[in-house]
Each structure stands twice: as structure tokens, then as C-alpha cells.
Write a structure and sequence with these properties.
alpha+beta; 7-stranded mixed β-sheet; 3-stranded antiparallel β-sheet; 18 strands; disordered C terminus
């Protein structure tokens, strides 16, 4: 790579289905702090910021890649409108700034990489948007028992450092532009770098979003063409995700926490020799909850 890297930052601050610009203040706060740091870094040359407030997101992500390639940028940083970058800085002693720690790793590695910040989906499940390959059994014919699966919340909680993974989210995403040489469309009709996959031919149910398909393809093509996986997750730089609350790093549930909660719940339970009864207020008689109920008649 060159001694100085020209950087293109693309934000996707669309609202109203692309009719207006909208983003969480955490995005601009992070950019206001980070851009001066980027410009002061001796490894960075030109820094440019472009806002792509349009839909669909597949189109604008592909547009960002093409712009970076056409204008000969070395690095591309994607930042979505609902991110809270560097969420744990100042709270977790192990947390690191996404920008500097990711760039350090890329320079030290010496080969084209794509690095993302981890974050979770919206409640009530808050699943982790980082993927690995899994299998359910060993010694299967032709090794066909394999699937792309998300890291569990417990697995993600215990991770640290930068890890090469199977696929990841691109809400906060720094990449060497050369990685997109791996999956460049060759002719009309080919999918772009970013595209959705669907469950049926009518495209009524999605099964893979554009960030997963793009990084999964980069990972597989990198292994086959370059001999290594260029797709990495920076576990030390968790981002928040405003959906509709800010979703942070998974919290670990330990046996001690469970026992404390059970102890708090215990005193509220009825003694073994007591039962909860349903009271018929018309007659004043107790009735068991298990007692058969009379059919309900709709008045005419």
C-alpha cells in the first residue's frame, strides 16, 4: 500500500424513503471528532466526505464503492445514519477507538482488508450481526453440513481484538478499496457488490441483507483467489445501534446473577400449603382456577 492513504467517507443519512436527509447526532459527533484525527495522521493523505441520501441501500453502497474506485481512493469508510460509534469508550477499559485501531491493524497486516465494528439488532432479540460458519455433525458426505450462522450473544461477549470472520455488518466499515476487485461485476446482469437475497422468486421475503452478501462473497473469494480471508471484525470497538434504543454489547448472564434474581423472586411466591383461588364475586364462593367455566353467551 502507498505511504499515504487517501480516504473517502460515505454516509447514508436518508430519511423519508430517501426524500430527505436524517441521521442520529451520534454520527456527526463522531465525525467531528474523528476527521481532524484522520487528517493529522501522517499515514493519511486526502480526506473527503460524501453524503448519499438515497434508496435503496444496495444502490448507494455500490455507488460508494464505484466512486472510491473511480476517484482512486485507497480507503473507504461507510457510516450509517443509525450508528453510535465507539459506544463503550470511557466505560469499558478494554474498548478502543474504531478508526485508529482498525487502521493500525490494516497497516500492520500489509494486505487489503475490510474491517467493521460489531453491533446488534433491535429488541427483543438483539442478535449479533457478525457471522461464522457452523456445522451440526462431522463426517458428512462431501462436507455439505455447513451453514452461515450468527455469533451468539455469549460468544460475542467474550471476544476481543480483531478476528477474521465469515460475514459482518457495514454500518461502520473501513476497507481497502482493492478488496472489491475480488467481486467486481463483469457484465450486465451480474449482481453488484451489495445485493439482497430472497427466499422466493417473487422476492417477498429476504434471507440475506446487502452487507452480509457482500462481505460473505469477499470472504470466500479472498480465500480462493488471495489465499486469505480479508473480512475482519473489530471486537474492541463496539458500536451502538439506534433501533429504537441504542443497542450495545451483549450482557453476560451468569449463574450468580440468576441466583440473585431467584432470591428476589422467591419471597413473593406463595407457601406450599397455600393455593391461589378465584373468587366468584356474585356468590362470594371460592372457585379453583382449574374449575370448568360456563359457556359465554352473547346477548342478543
Amino acid at each position: 500500500m502507498p505511504m499515504k492513504y487517501d480516504l473517502l467517507i460515505c454516509t447514508f443519512s436518508y430519511g423519508g424513503n430517501g426524500g430527505m436527509k436524517s441521521e442520529h447526532p451520534d454520527v456527526r459527533d463522531w465525525l467531528l471528532k474523528s476527521i481532524p484525527e484522520m487528517k493529522e495522521d501522517s499515514r493519511i493523505g486526502k480526506v473527503n466526505l460524501v453524503d448519499m441520501a438515497d434508496t435503496p441501500i444496495t444502490m448507494t453502497r455500490n455507488r460508494a464503492v464505484r466512486l472510491a474506485r473511480d476517484k482512486n481512493y485507497d480507503l473507504l469508510l461507510m457510516l450509517d445514519s443509525d450508528m453510535a460509534p465507539d459506544l463503550l469508550l470511557g466505560q469499558d477499559p478494554e474498548a478502543k477507538p474504531f478508526w485508529s485501531s482498525s487502521l493500525d491493524y490494516m497497516v500492520e497486516y500489509g494486505k487489503p482488508l475490510a474491517i467493521a465494528a460489531p453491533y446488534c439488532g433491535p429488541p427483543p432479540t438483539e442478535n449479533v450481526y457478525v457471522f461464522r460458519w457452523r456445522s451440526g455433525q462431522s463426517d458428512t458426505p462431501d462436507d455439505v453440513d455447513m451453514r452461515l450462522d450468527q455469533f451468539t450473544r455469549e460468544e460475542a461477549f467474550s471476544r476481543g481484538g480483531i478476528e477474521h470472520v465469515a460475514a459482518l455488518p457495514t454500518g461502520l466499515f473501513l476497507c481497502d478499496v482493492r478488496v472489491f476487485d475480488l467481486t467486481e461485476p463483469k457484465e450486465k446482469g451480474d449482481s453488484g457488490w451489495f445485493y439482497y437475497e430472497y427466499e422466493d422468486i417473487y422476492e417477498t421475503e429476504k434471507c440475506s441483507t446487502e452487507d452480509v452478501t457482500a462481505t460473505r462473497d469477499l470472504s470466500l473469494k479472498g480465500e480462493s483467489d488471495w489465499g486469505y480471508n480479508p473480512v475482519c471484525i473489530n471486537w474492541d470497538a463496539w458500536a451502538g445501534h439506534w433501533k429504537p434504543k441504542v443497542v450495545g454489547k451483549p450482557q453476560l448472564v451468569t449463574p450468580s446473577m440468576v441466583s440473585e434474581r431467584l432470591l428476589k423472586i422467591g419471597p413473593t411466591r406463595l407457601p406450599e400449603n397455600e393455593k391461589l383461588k378465584q373468587v366468584d364475586f356474585t356468590s362470594g364462593l371460592d372457585k379453583s382456577w382449574d374449575a370448568p367455566k360456563r359457556p359465554f353467551k352473547v346477548p342478543r
